[in-house]
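Write out this protein's structure.
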Amino acid sequence: MKNTNPDNNSGNSFPPEPSMVDGKSAWRRFLPVGVLVFGLVVILALMWRYDIRLDEKFWIRMADHHDIVEDWTRQNFLIAVLGFMVIYTLAVAFSVPGAVFLTLAGGVIFGWLGVLIVVISATLGALLVFLVARGAMADVFQRSGSSFLVKLQGGFDRSPFFWLLALRLMPVAPFWVVNIIPAMLGMRVVPYVLATLIGIIPGSLVFVYTGIGFSEVLADGVVPNLSVLSDNRIFGPILALSLLAVIPALIRSRRPAKEPAKEPAKEKENT
C-alpha cells in the first residue's frame, strides 16, 4: 500500500528557515573580512619572526645592500616590478602599517617609474578592501539606524567623488579608514577607483621623489635622515590640494536635495 501522505514523500523539499538563511549569508559576507584580518596577523607575525621592520632599521639594511638590490633589479627588472606590485598591493589590502616606507622604497628602487607602480598597486589594494567592506559592512551600516551615520551618508551621497578625493589627498587620514568609509556609505565602484587613483598621485609623487633623494644617500652607504618626512614644506601643498577638493563637496552638500519627480495622476476609472 502506497503512502499518500505528502509530508512523508522523500522527493519533497522544504525551504530552510529564515534564520538559517540569514546566518549563512552573514557568514559568507564576513568571511573575506576574516581572511584579511587573518592575513594581517600572519604578516605581522612573519615580520616579527624575521625581524622585518618598516622603520629606521629598514633603511640601515637598505644602505648595507643598496648596490646588491640595484644590480638585481637591473638584471631582473620585470620580476622586480611585478614582485614589488604584489607586495605593495597585499600590504594595502591587509592594512599593514608603515606602507609609506614601501612608497619611499619604490622611489629608491625604480626612480620616477615608482610613481606609476605605487599608484596602480595602492589602487588595486584599496579596491580589494573596498569590495570586501562593501559586502560585509554596508548591510550592517544600513541596519544600524544611527542618525549621525544617516546624516553623514546624506552629505556624502551628494558629492561622493569630491569627498573621497579630499580624504585621499589628506595625509592625516589613515589609508585603510578611507578605504572602508565609502564602502559603508554605499559608494559606487567606478567613482571610488577614479577618486582613489587621482587622490593618491600627489602624495605618491612627493614620497617617490623623496625616495629618489634617499637613493643617492644610500648609494654612499649612509642612512637617510627620516625627519624630512615631517617637513611642512612636503605636506603643505598636499593639504592645500585637499582643501581645494573639499570646496566642491561642501557646495554640493549645502544644496537642497532634489525632490523625486511626481508621477502623473492616474485618470479615474469610469464606474
